[in-house]
Amino acid sequence: MASGSQYRERLVPHWWVWVIALGFVGCLAVAYGAALGTSAGALVGATAGALTIWLLWITSPTIVVDGAFLTVAGAKLPRPCVGDVEVLTRDRIRDLRGPGADARVFTALRPWSARDALLVAVTDPDDPHPAWLFSSRHPARAAEALTATM
Questions:
Q1: What is the C-alpha to C-alpha distance for residues 85 and 108, in angstroms, rounded to an integer?
Q2: Are the C-beta atoms of residues 32 and 42 closer than 8 Å to each other?
Q3: 141 and 67, same structural domain?
Q4: Number of domains in the chain
Q5: Which of 16, 81, 123, 127 has the fewest CB atoms within 10 Å, i.e. is most exposed?
Q6: Residue 127 belongs to a domain with what CATH number?
Q7: How far apart are alpha carbons 33 and 35 in whole angstroms?
Q8: pTM higher than the cut 0.90
Q9: Residue span of the structural domain in which 143 resides
């Protein structure tokens, strides 16, 4: 088995999520600045801004496909347990999240980071999850890495 990563992706939020989050931080800084003075507003703005950037980064899931595992947001699925891999259309994603949802499916969807997704069947009969549903910016590349021979 290969020890190196065949595919790696970090789902950081799109630019507009950062703008909205930092816009809220700016509003908070202005409010504190108006109430307590410019220094307090600047301190609150800098602290809240740094915390917001850190939280957006740290909560961005990583997808890694290597010779041993498929790892999504810290959860690991051994490669021998990977079954059929399906690159999903937006309508199919909507169906799997809504009317056709199965509560047992491991789900890691981040629509503010990627609109495309993969559905990976799990072949391990002892696993409580029949499949994994997760977002990816490059689902075709991730599927190719998953279906490549080990």
A1: 15
A2: no
A3: yes
A4: 2
A5: 16
A6: 2.30.29
A7: 6
A8: no
A9: 62-147
pLDDT digits (tens, 9 = 90+) for 37-96: 999 999 999 999 999 999 999 999 999 999 899 999 999 999 999 999 999 988 899 889
Instruction: Outline where DSSP puts E strands in the chain.
Output: 5-10, 62-66, 69-72, 75-78, 82-88, 106-108, 117-122, 131-135
Domain assignment present for residue 36? The answer is yes
Q: What does the pLDDT look like over 16-39, one tens digit per residue?
A: 999 999 999 999 999 999 999 999
Domain boundary among 43, 58, 73: 58
52, 116: one domain: no
Contact call for residues 66 and 4 (beta carbons, < 8 A): yes
> How far from chain centre, in Å, is Cα 11?
5
The encoded tokens of residue 80 equal 């021998």
What CA–CA distance (Å, rounded) separates 5 from 10? 13
Q: Are residues 22 and 81 in the same domain?
A: no
Contacts of residue 128, Cβ cutoff 8 Å, sequence gap at least 6: 104
Backbone angles phi, psi at 42, to 5 degrees: -65, -40
